[in-house]
Design goal:
Blueprint (H helix, E strand, L loop, with lengths): L13 E7 L11 E7 L3 H13 L5 E3 L5 E3 L4 E7 L6 E4 L2 E5 L4 H10 L2 E2 L11 H7 L2 E2 L2 E2 H4 E7 L5 E4 L19 E8 L1 E2 L2 H18 L6 E4 L9 H7 L6 E2 L2 E3 L6 E4 L5 H19 L8 E3 L1
Parallel strand pairs: 2-5, 3-5, 4-19
Antiparallel strand pairs: 1-2, 6-7, 7-13, 8-14, 9-10, 11-12, 11-13, 15-18, 16-17, 17-18
The protein binds flavin-adenine dinucleotide.
Flavin-adenine dinucleotide binds next to β3, α3, β9, β13 and β15.
Length: 297
């Protein structure tokens, strides 16, 4: 992609050129993005989508970059970041959150309001949009359990509202994995519970996370999906791969399911390490591990 683009056709749009993706991924890896677009409202996002479509550009949607591995050469295209779509409002027993709102902030707001149902999400470092798309989950909870509706824009910028049924949620999967639609917001239906109890549960879950997960190093969480009936971390450990290193990337010594950026890792280091792990696990156990982390290379 070499042509110039005039983004001023979308009035007031914030555009960053050559923005290092390492600043926008929890792995702290990734070269520059040709354009990073930061719409401030769903209407502005719709205008961006219309312009992209007119110019034959397919934008990549970025939330918190917590499930993303970006190539060392960066991305020669348009990244649409939801960082500014981060409004949150409470209405009775429901909370509406923009697609870019952080789950940790959403869970904290719900706790303050004495609203239960998002305790499981407080330690997941993603955005509402990224988490809905992946049907993120932890400790027995999943996004789909608390959702009432999802607001989104299709490739032409036209708005749609989907019910949870229409989202076809499954394990780390939703209809948004098949359709390149932008999630601009979601409404969560919660239930009353004492704020102190909610906060205590969140604190306990986060304590368990800190104890088990290598949160002291950059990563994108679980590197591989859970194979049916098995656990990726257990298979990796069984094959003696705990601590395996390629360049600055390492299979975490604390939790084998995480590849960590131990020291200035490149995307190439992480990919080479992931490939070694997949090959050795397949050879020894017959299980082919599928990446959970999304690769934009
Ligand atoms: C330390 C750590 C712990 C984690 N623990 C968990 C866990 O317990 N459970 C769990 O499920 N995950 C976990 N994750 C993974 C990650 O946080 C989740 O997958 C999260 O939902 C990703 O959200 P995001 O906003 O960061 O998405 P990104 O990484 O920015 O994007 C991921 C995908 O979603 C798409 N996307 C992002 N925003 C939108 C949008 N608004 N509309 C449409 N598509 C969009 C992107 O295009 C991309 O395809 C963990 C990650 C880390 C680093």
């Amino acid at each position: 992609m070499t042509e110039e683009m005039d983004w001023t056709a979308v009035p007031g749009l914030e555009v960053l050129e050559g923005e290092p993706m390492s600043r926008h991924t929890t792995f702290r890896i990734g070269g520059p993005a040709r354009w990073m677009l930061l719409p401030r409202s769903a209407d502005q996002a719709a205008a961006v989508l219309r312009l992209c479509r007119e110019r034959g550009i397919v934008p990549f949607f970025l939330g918190c970059g917590s499930n993303l591995l970006v190539g060392d050469g960066g991305y020669d295209g348009a990244i649409l970041s939801t960082a500014r779509l981060d409004e949150m409002r409470v209405e009775g027993e429901t909370v509406y959150a923009g697609g870019g709102a952080r789950l940790s902030r959403l869970a904290a707001l719900a706790a303050d309001q004495g609203l239960s149902g998002l305790e499981f999400a407080s330690g997941i470092p993603g955005s509402v949009g990224g988490a809905v798309r992946m049907n993120a989950g932890a400790y027995g909870g999943e996004m789909c359990q608390a959702l009432e509706r999802v607001d989104c824009l299709d490739e032409t910028g036209a708005p749609h509202t989907l019910s949870p049924e229409a989202c076809h949620f499954a394990y780390r999967h939703s209809v948004f994995c098949e359709k390149n639609w932008l999630i601009t917001g979601a409404l969560f239906r919660l239930r009353r519970r004492d704020s102190a109890e909610i906060r205590a549960e969140m604190a306990e879950l986060n304590r368990r996370r800190r104890e088990k997960q290598p949160l002291e190093y950059p990563s994108a969480g679980s590197t591989f999906k859970r194979p049916p009936g098995r656990f990726a971390a257990a298979l990796i450990e069984e094959c003696g791969l705990k601590g395996l290193r390629v360049g600055g990337a390492q299979v975490s010594e604390k939790h084998s399911g995480f590849v960590i950026n131990r020291e200035d890792a490149t995307c190439a280091d992480v990919l080479a390490l992931m490939e070694q792990v997949r090959e050795r696990v397949l050879e020894r156990t017959g299980v082919l591990l599928e990446p959970e982390v999304e690769i934009l290379n």
